[in-house]
Amino acid sequence: MSQQAPSPRDPQVPRHVAVIMDGNGRWAQARDRARTVGHRAGLRAARKIVRAAGRAGVEVLTLFAFSQENWKRPETEVSLLMQLFVSTLSREMNSLHKNNVRVRFIGEHSDFAPELREEMRRAQMLTRDNHGMQLLVAVGYGGQWDIVQAAQRLAASGRPITPESLEAELATEEVCPPDLLIRTGGESRISNFLLWQLAYTELYFTPTLWPDFDDEAFADALRWYAGRERRFGRVPEAA
């Protein structure tokens, strides 16, 4: 998982890529397997994309792993997801640390089991001084929650609420907004993910189910992004 960021930086490579990893359950159902089999396959896909992003020179990769709405899923599925998070963290952290990846978890974690919260804390402490790619894992996260908690902190401090001050209180305050959002699985919505941060993000929707999203699929998304003209409200250059 080598980190080979180009120097000087290639402007056609997004600095920050966010991913909604959708389609694990449908991938499993298409194979007459339990949805949990799809979640395990999805973890393998996530490992591949972390490596692909590092090789491409992406500076920040944010993965939407578990939304606040996902608590409404069947209890057995949620329980297995929590177990997978714990086992994956304990298994992957040394490799991520060795490859200079800094890991952070964003979201509301008070409802997570103590064991999972401890694994998350250990991962962040282990990698906090790394200077390679930042990996943000959104768990227990919701975009509306993020904006509300930022506004509440500003109100409690007595500071004025401005776009700049609110942005500084968001869960992603340490990183730039996403340049590219990838959503797999064929749906064309952002599902309460990074609502504030995605204001000018390029949105890439693909029918590929997440377990099938591999290095080449990721490269396709980067090529699509490289062909975009990002205007941020300005007129096209040709005009």
From TrEMBL:
Q: What reaction is this protein's catalytic activity?
A: 8 isopentenyl diphosphate + (2E,6E)-farnesyl diphosphate = di-trans,octa-cis-undecaprenyl diphosphate + 8 diphosphate
Q: Write down the InterPro entries for this protein, in alphabetical order.
A: UPP_synth-like, UPP_synth-like_CS, UPP_synth-like_sf
What EC number(s) are associated with this protein in UniProt? 2.5.1.31
GO BP term (any one): cell wall organization
- Which residues carry out catalysis? D22, N70
Transmembrane stretches in the record are: none
CDD domains (alphabetical): Cis_IPPS (cd00475)
Binding, Mg(2+)? D22, E202
GO CC terms, sorted: cytosol
Question: Can you tell me which residues bind substrate?
Answer: 23-27, 35, 39, 67-69, 71, 73, 183, 189-191
Q: Tell me how the cofactor is bound.
A: Binds 2 magnesium ions per subunit.
Which superkingdom?
Bacteria
Q: What's one Pfam family the UniProt record gives for this protein?
A: Prenyltransf
Q: What does this protein do?
A: Catalyzes the sequential condensation of isopentenyl diphosphate (IPP) with (2E,6E)-farnesyl diphosphate (E,E-FPP) to yield (2Z,6Z,10Z,14Z,18Z,22Z,26Z,30Z,34E,38E)-undecaprenyl diphosphate (di-trans,octa-cis-UPP). UPP is the precursor of glycosyl carrier lipid in the biosynthesis of bacterial cell wall polysaccharide components such as peptidoglycan and lipopolysaccharide.
Assembly behavior: Homodimer.
Family (UniProt): Belongs to the UPP synthase family.
Descriptive protein name: Ditrans,polycis-undecaprenyl-diphosphate synthase ((2E,6E)-farnesyl-diphosphate specific)
Instruction: Write down the species.
Output: Sinimarinibacterium flocculans
Q: What gene is behind this protein?
A: uppS
